[in-house]
Amino acid sequence: MTPVDVTPTPNRPSPNPFFDYSDFFFFLVLAVPSVFIALMLVRVAKVFLPIPMAVQLLLVQSVWYFLAFGALAALFRIRYDRPLWQSLGWRPIAFGGAATAILAGPLLAFSIGLLGSALRTPEIDLPFEQMLSSRATVIFLGVLVVILGPVAEELAFRGFLMPLLVRNIGAAGGIVATGVIFGGIHGYEYQWSWRHIVLISGAGCVFGWAKYKTQSTLASALMHSTFNLTQFAAFLIEARRL
After folding, report:
1. Among 98, 108, 163, 234, which residue is least crowded by beta carbons within 10 Å?
2. How far apart are CA 94 and CA 98, in angstroms?
3. How many CB atoms sit inside 10 A of residue 175's CB?
4. What's the pTM?
């Protein structure tokens, strides 16, 4: 009897991740000191350069992303001899899939907005409202909100955490559980308003579905990016910055 080759082909990645919860715990443990290292580096830079407070906060978050994922990349390379991006599901997708993800982001943003109105979500002053003091700060904030933030969050949630949960509790459970955790993590930004957390969790579930459907974190990152872009543009228009 001829043995069947069950090795996944490059076009059909394995749904089971090679990493485990110990790796995710390692990532969380290193994420905490990475924040303090980022703070220290920015404070040192402030001694030599006149950096406004708003820019300092944005720099801290950017450096934090770099340090945390740099540590994870080192872990994957040392322990498994695997690259970071491919390990977290960052794979090319067809043009049609990319276009769908890009267009789905604004549609999701409008849908969340309508649902928020129906739920009568309270008006909350967002933390970055104080970061609109100059055009340079607005541009820097835009890059963080539209590009760096979505990429980092999708790598962490849909690329790293969700495959582990899907393996243990199934696709639906993994997508929903990741979405709920995603919404809970963002709760502090919205003063722990349960309505906002529910809405963000719902958006996270849609991002998770996009990742699961395409088996590519790129798809969920594109959707997340245009989702944030739509909300950020609406915020700037309301604040009369556009």
Report:
1. 234
2. 6
3. 25
4. 0.88
**Backbone torsions φ then ψ of 209, nearest 5 degrees:** -65, -40
Find out whether 179 and 204 touch, Cβ atoms under 8 Å: yes
Q: Which two tokens stand for residue 121?
A: 């979500």
Reply yes or no on whether the pLDDT at 5 is more than 50. no
DSSP class per residue in 129-176:
GGG-SSHHHHHHHHHIIIIIHHHHHHIIIIIIIHHHHHHHHHHHHHHH
Q: What pLDDT is attached to residue 133?
A: 67
CA 109, 112, 118, 121 torsion-angle sign = negative
Task: For the beta carbon of residue 143, count every other beta carbon within 10 angstroms.
Answer: 13
DSSP state of 78: I
Quote the CA–CA distance of 126 and 112 in Å, as a whole number: 17
The sign of the torsion formed by the CA atoms of 114, 179, 63, 103 equals negative
**Residue 1 pLDDT greater than 80, yes or no:** no
User: Which alpha helices (DSSP H) does the chain contain, by range?
Assistant: 21-48, 53-75, 84-87, 95-119, 135-143, 149-154, 162-185, 194-214, 217-238
* Dihedral of alpha carbons 150, 156, 161, 163, sign: positive
The predicted-structure confidence for 80-103, as pLDDT tens digits, reads as follows 999 999 999 999 999 999 999 999
For residue 168, what are its two tokens? 């243990």
Cβ-Cβ contacts under 8 Å for 28 (sequence gap 6 or more): none
